[in-house]
Amino acid sequence: MDEGEPTILLTNDDGIETAGFRALYDALTDVGDVIAVAPDSDQSAVGRALSESVTVTDHELGYAVAGTPADCVVAGVEALVPDVDLVVAGCNDGANLGAYVLGRSGTVSAAVEAAFFGVPAIAVSMYIPVREDITFESISAEYDAYSEATRAAAYLAEHALGAGVFDHADYLNVNAPMAGGEYGPLEDGEHAPLAITEPSKVYQMDAVRDGEQVQLYDRIWERMAEGDIPDANGTDRRAVVDGKISVSPLAVPHTSEHHEALDALAETYPV
């Protein structure tokens, strides 16, 4: 590694053997010294779940961990990769858009875990539209489909630290459209611009009961595929649907404000 290049811990929640992970690993090697510390199997949507101990196995890219993305960050920062400059999580198969996914996504949760260690982090995801003419699995396995996401991630990994971005944000949540081609919003050879966004507050989870079963639906994905979404300009979801790369600068921990109503309840609590 050249002097001055960052040490990058790369993790994800889809597993270390996925196409998106390898695409991001390859892109980041042009930026710094990349060491993989990633789950050995799919850990999608586990949030910040933690284990008491994990088994770590040597891997050609670094380390495969029998654990969650948060496990990988804790083990990586504290035991496996000393002097980490940046944690990158991804590239996720599918977008992580909207405020409600921030605590649900294993990819985003890895970035949050890094932020609690004081290590800057970037979560990277690629939006895959769900339509009758496209299968999620066919796109998620396609290495070249991730090129817009990995291009943006490499740019941010190279420049954000020196530009002072992390003086103001703990982590970045990056969501990109698929690269140009038959299904993506971009033409072949066209690159998406970066858009600085905030997570959308739109929430359209639904549940339908059928006897003993209750089916859970996230209705926003159906609307996204048609481009018919209620999200305002400046939000992450709107940017991605419009063919842009969404970059949301975010902070931890979650914060709250004191207010008179709760203060009054505390004062009248019987003891």
Automatic annotation (TrEMBL):
It holds the Pfam family SurE. Residues 8-180 form the Survival protein SurE-like phosphatase/nucleotidase domain. SUPFAM superfamilies: SurE-like (SSF64167). Its EC number is 3.1.3.5. InterPro entries: SurE, SurE-like_Pase/nucleotidase, SurE-like_sf. Belongs to the SurE nucleotidase family. NCBIfam families: surE. This is 5'-nucleotidase SurE. It comes from Halapricum desulfuricans. The gene is surE.
